[in-house]
Amino acid sequence: MSDVLAVVEHRRGELRPVSFELLTAGRDLAAAMDGELHVAVIGGPVDRYVDRLNRAGVDVIHTVDNGAEFNHDVYVQTVDALCQTLEPGVLLTPHTVNALDYVPAVAIDREMALVTDVLELSVEDDTLLATREFYESKVTASMAVEDTPRAVTIRPGEWPAAEGIAETEVRFFEFEPDDESIKSHVEGYEEAGSSEVDVTAADFLIGVGRGIGEVENLALIEDLAEAGDATIAASRPLVDKGWFETGRQVGQSGKTVSPDVYLAIGISGAVQHVAGIKGADTIVAINTDPHAPIFDIADQAIVGDLFEIVPALTEQVHTQ
Amino acid sequence: MKILVTFAEVAAVADNFEIEDGAVDERYLEYDLNEWDEYALEEAVSLREEGVADEVVTVTIGPERSEDTIRMALAKGADRAVRIWDESLADGPLEDVTTRAALIAPVVEEEDPTLVLSGVQAADDGYGATGVALARVLESQWAAVVNDLTLDLPNNTARVRRELEGGIEELTQINLPAVLTIQSGINNPRYASLRGLQQAQTQEIDLRTPGDLDIEPESLKPGLTRGKLAEPEPKGDTEYVEGEPDDQAEAIAGLLVEHGVVEE
Ligand SMILES: Cc1cc2nc3c(=O)[nH]c(=O)nc-3n(C[C@H](O)[C@H](O)[C@H](O)COP(=O)(O)OP(=O)(O)OC[C@H]3O[C@@H](n4cnc5c(N)ncnc54)[C@H](O)[C@@H]3O)c2cc1C
Ligand SMILES: Nc1ncnc2c1ncn2[C@@H]1O[C@H](COP(=O)(O)O)[C@@H](O)[C@H]1O
Fold first, then answer.
1. Considering the domain A199-319 in this protein, what is its CATH number?
2. Which one of A32, A221, B66, B260 counts the least CB within 10 Å of its CB?
C-alpha cells in the first residue's frame, strides 16, 4: 500500500486544465496501489483552487500559501517537505515546462526513480508500469519503475479531466522555505511575438513542416494556399530558422488552432505540435514516412512525397 | 570563464523500421547529434567568440560509435571533448537520467565551468530531465527551457527567458554557476566548415570510465527498465488515401470541397 501525492499546476490565477487530468490519473493510480490520493496546490489563490480541486477520489488537499506564481526553489523545497511528511510512493505531476524545472531536482534530493512524459500507468504484481514513447513517438515501451519512491510526470491530454464534487478534507501545510536557498527570482512574464496573420481564425489552415527542405520550396505551399484561399502556419523548426514569424507557430509553445481543415504537409506530428491542432475538425496529413505519428491523429492520411502531391493538389484546386 | 556542453548522440528509427521481439534492431537505427544540443553548443561557441567565455568543453556519455558525433561538436567550435564510457553502461543504466547526472557530475566538478549548457530534451528518449537533475547533483542553480540568455558575470548572475506553454515566457534571474537547458530557436546553429571537420578528425577525445570518475558500480543501478517496444496504437480511425500522387491529390481536393473550405 502506498499513497500518491499529486502536485497541480496553476498560472495567473487559474488552475491549468492538465491539473484535472492529473486528479484522474492520481485517483486511478492510488486505487491500484491501495493507497490514498493527496493533492497539493502550492502558491496562488489556494482557497479558490480548493473549491475546484474538490473532486471525487481526492482524499486530502494540502494547500501551501506561498507566493503567487511558480518559483523552482520554492517548489523544490516545498514538495520535498511534503514528501517528508506524507511519504508518498509516487509523486505525480503534469509533464509541463515548469515540472521540467523542478521535478528532476526533487527526484535527486529524495533519491526517487524518475520517469517523465508518461501516457499510461498501471500496477502489476506490485510493480509500477509506466508507458512512454521513444524515437520521436514511433514506438512505445512499458517502463518498470523500481519500488522506491518515484516521481512520474504525465503527458497532458491522455487522461480525462476529473469531475464530480466531493467533500474533501483540506489541510493547510505550513512551510516557509529557507530564504538563503532561494537563488532564482522570477521577474516577470512576456507574450511571445505576435503576427499580422491570425492562424487561429483560419477555416482552411495549411501547416508546413521540416519536410519542405529548403526555404525556396515554400513557393509550392504558397501556390497551394493561394489557389485554395488558405492560411499558412508552420511547425517550430521553420519558425526557429526564421522562415516564419513566431505568430505562425502551431503547437504547445505557439498557437492552438481549430480550423475546419488542417492540412499538415511534411510535419512528423511531435506531441508538442499535435497539442496545438487537436481542435481541428478534420486533419489531413501528407508525409513520406508511414510511421509518422501525425498519421495516428489524422482523419485522412496520404503516405507520399509532398513534392509530387502538392503541385498536383494545387492544380486540382484551381480546376475546382 | 569556461562553458561545458552536455552533448548527446541520439538515435532515430529509419522509415522502414520493424520491431522484432520487442526491440528495434541496430540496422534500423540512425545516429546523429541531438538537435537541442546543437543550439546549446552554438550558444557556448558564440559566447567564446564574443570573448565572454574562453573555453568550451563538451561531455558525452556514449560508446565508441559516438565519437563521430562528438567530432561534429569539435568541428563546430568546441575546444575539447570528454567521452564517458565503459561496457557496464551498455545495457540499462543510462535509461535513468539520475544515473546520467551522476556520471556527468564528476566531470563538471573537475572542469569547474561557470555555465553548463544542456539541451531541453534528447530527441530519442525525450525525458527532458538530465540537465536539471545534473544541476541538483552539483548543487548549482538551473533553468529549464531557456530561449534567451544574458550573463552578468561581475554580479555572478544570469538573466534567462524560459519558454512556457502557449507563447508565455518567464523572465528569471538566477545565480551562477548554473545549468541551463537550451531550447531550439535561441540562435542559428552553424554548419561545420570543411576545415573544422578535417581538424576534428585528428583531435584527441578524452575517454573517462566510471572507475576513473570514482563512481561506484552500485550507484549505476537504474531505477527503471525499459520493457518490450511496440508500435503505438492509432488513436482515431485514420483513413489512408491510396493511389498515385494524382489520385491522392484528387481525393484531397474532393475532401476540401466537401468540407466547404474550397469552393466548387
Ligand atoms: C518544450 C518544447 C516545445 C515545443 N513546442 C513546439 C511547438 O509549439 N510547435 C511545434 O511544431 N513544435 C514544437 N516543439 C518541437 C517538436 O518537438 C518537434 O521537434 C517539431 O514539431 C518537429 O517539426 P516537424 O514535424 O516540422 O519536423 P520533423 O520532426 O523533422 O518532421 C519532418 C517530417 O517531414 C517528413 N518528410 C520529409 N520529406 C518529405 C517529403 N518530401 N514529403 C512529405 N513528407 C516529408 C518526414 O517524414 C518527417 O515526418 C517543441 C519542443 C519542445 C521540447
Ligand atoms: N548520453 C548523454 N551524454 C551527454 N549528454 C546527455 C546524454 N543524454 C542526455 N544528455 C543531455 O541531457 C539533455 C536532455 O536529455 P533527456 O533528459 O534524455 O531528454 C540532452 O539534450 C543532452 O544535453
1. 3.40.50.1220
2. B260
